[in-house]
Specification:
The strands form three sheets. The chain has a five-stranded mixed sheet, with no helix packed on it. A four-stranded antiparallel sheet has the order 1-6-7-4. Strands 10-11 form a two-stranded parallel ribbon. The protein has eleven helices and eleven strands. The chain has two domains: 228 residues, Toxin ADP-ribosyltransferase, Chain A, domain 1 (Alpha-Beta Complex), CATH 3.90.176; 97 residues, no CATH class. It is globular, with a radius of gyration of 21 Å. The protein has 361 residues and is an alpha+beta fold. Helix 8 packs antiparallel against helix 11. The longest helix is centred in the last third of the chain and has 13 residues. Its main location: secreted. It catalyses: L-arginyl-[protein] + NAD(+) = N(omega)-(ADP-D-ribosyl)-L-arginyl-[protein] + nicotinamide + H(+). Keywords: Glycosyltransferase, NAD, NADP, Nucleotidyltransferase, Secreted, Toxin, Transferase, Virulence.
């Protein structure tokens, strides 16, 4: 297996941190199609990939054996799905993370992505159960990339992007070194995940940026052979990556997935995603919220009468769910789909939404 030590293996590992050159930097169609897939074991998730990745079952077996006591309250299969992503083997064109990211970066990915649906469902569930990072992280490449990143422009990285929380990792001779043409990206992230406890190479302090993450180019510093490009994660008005309903408890302050549920199935789907199951609603009649949020109330009013209500990327909290429960759900009998992705909602907020959905009939 090519996941051990040695210069060749180190070079292969470096590819994951430095493959930024492969990003098309174009706006492609959103990544979707897997959200309603059932959550299955890693062995089942990779079955459709065997014809594409002949060695994947062997590496998945090793990954799962390394995850008998997974960190962060992940299941063994969830943790192993991340470990498998970080593993490298030959030939590289048959290696999981390389082929997956090539597919995600393809303009005609819809059919190519279908064999990946079960794995993406498991992999995304695992990542979404880890706490989000709000800090500076780093990527780099041994090239001058300044002509492709112009200050003020918006770019999207369509593949899952490996980065590090320690810039010295990139500056080491094993990665970029300290001479020749180099570009280091300093990235102010909001939603990346620290996967070092679930990586085959924990010493690299790897942080994983979600596929289809959007950035604004803030600045570009020219220091001779070294260019430093500053990026800031920004939120698109509409999601570019479909997030599945999360099975299992979310970490504190973790953004929950998009909720898209028919009314007759609202109770079970919402509980499955974010809230513990309850035998009976604790709220027979939801009171009008005393707490106020003018921006949220206006957003709800602007979408009154529609069957779909989009409230993603609004930094909503548990208290805000009182408003959503009363104004958006109880008072809007036409509502069939509620999108709350990328907010800060915990179990209490999810319970408010769940109870309100039960009464929205």
């Amino acid at each position: 297996m090519a996941v051990g030590g040695g210069d060749e293996t180190t070079t292969q590992r470096m590819l994951r941190m430095t493959d930024i050159i492969n990003e098309p930097l174009e706006f492609l169609t959103p990544i979707s199609g897997y959200a309603k897939m059932p959550l299955v074991s890693l062995e089942q998730a990779i079955e459709p990939l065997v014809s594409i990745l002949p060695e994947v079952q062997s590496y998945a077996y090793v990954a799962k054996q390394r995850c008998k006591k997974p960190a962060d309250n992940l299941t063994q299969d969830e943790s192993a799905s991340i470990v498998l992503y970080t593993m490298t083997w030959e030939p590289l064109e048959k290696c999981l993370y390389i082929v997956l990211n090539q597919t995600l970066r393809s303009a005609n990915r819809q059919q190519k992505l279908k064999p990946w649906h079960s794995y993406l469902r498991l992999f995304l569930n695992a990542l979404l159960r880890l706490p989000p990072l709000n800090e500076i992280i780093y990527r780099g490449v041994k090239l001058n990339m300044s002509d492709r990143y112009v200050r003020g422009e918006t770019v999207v990285w369509w593949g899952f992007s490996s980065s590090t929380s320690h810039v010295e990792v990139l500056q080491s001779d094993l990665f970029l070194g300290k001479t020749g043409a180099r570009t280091i990206f300093t990235i102010k992230c909001e939603s990346a995940r620290d996967i070092r406890k679930h990586s085959y190479f924990p010493e690299e302090s790897e942080v994983l940026i979600f596929a289809a993450t959007q950035f604004e180019v803030m600045s570009c510093l020219d220091q001779g052979d070294l260019r430093i490009i500053q990026l800031k994660e920004t939120r698109p008005p509409h999601a570019l990556l479909q997030l599945p309903p999360v099975v299992g408890p979310l970490p504190q302050s973790s953004p929950p997935p998009a909720v898209s549920v028919p009314k007759e199935k609202a109770s079970s789907t919402t509980n499955k995603a974010t809230a513990p199951p309850t035998a009976q609603s604790s709220h027979k009649l939801l009171p009008k919220s005393v707490y106020r949020n003018a921006d949220l109330e206006q957003a709800i009013a602007n979408q009154k009468g529609k069957t779909e209500l989009r409230l993603s990327y609004k930094s909503l909290t548990d208290k805000d769910m009182e408003i959503v429960a009363y104004y958006a759900i109880q008072e809007h009998k036409t509502l069939t789909t509620l999108n709350l992705s990328w907010n800060k909602i915990g179990d209490a907020g999810a319970q408010y939404v769940s109870d309100a959905l039960r009464h929205n009939t």
